[in-house]
Amino acid sequence: MRTKNMTPNRLWHTVMLNVQRNGYKRANYLREHNLFRHIGEKVYIQGRKLPLYSELISLGDNVKIASRVNFITHSIIHLMLNSAENLPIADKVQEQVGCIEVGDNVFIGAGTTILSNVRIGSNVIVAAGSMITKDVPSNSVVGGVPARVIESLDVYLEKLGNRERYPGELAPKKQSVSHELADFLWKQFIEERN
Questions:
Q1: Catalytic pick from 33, 38, 74, 179?
Q2: Which one, of 88, 85, 20, 92, lies nearest residue 50 by Cα?
Q3: Residue range 7-62, pLDDT digits in tens
Q4: Residue 74 a catalytic site member
Q5: Rounded to an integer, what distance in angstroms lies between the CA atom of residue 42 and that of residue 149?
Q6: Is-contact 51 71, C-beta < 8 A?
Q7: Closest C-alpha to 124, from 136, 116, 112
Q8: Cα–Cα distance between 119 and 180 in angstroms, integer?
Q9: How confident is the model at residue 81 (pLDDT cuts 50, 70, 90)?
């Protein structure tokens, strides 16, 4: 039995997303094939799976999406309710679908789930592992399950600006960490915990 989730067209696009060499190329592929409602410029998508009802997702400019981010544009509750023999609403419940809109300058951390009918404003950082269940205001840092505002983006940037994590010459290059940087970070990690 074939379900809506595994249509040949969706499966083909998922395969094609897997062969794109980086997140910018994946975003360009999605844009070129009109698979999302909108994808702005400078969008990076780490994930390689085409969400169901992807045409209900809109991404602004400079959106960076880490791995394992789930866009939930639908619910399958109707399948259970319509199959229930002892419920008075059986065979009467429609599938619930909804839009997801992401503004400009947004980072969405790994493992985040975004439910339908949610708008994430502009200039937002979403912490890894968050569950976005309602609209996220612009200029904020959010996290948690369910996600809540942790602080303003201005406060976060102020903290970030006053902190040097490691010397610039040791910075990671092309997704590679030098032995010197690894040693430096381990030393710092241990010192901070003693």
A1: 74
A2: 20
A3: 888 889 988 998 998 999 999 999 999 999 999 999 999 999 889 999 999 999 99
A4: yes
A5: 25
A6: yes
A7: 136
A8: 42
A9: confident
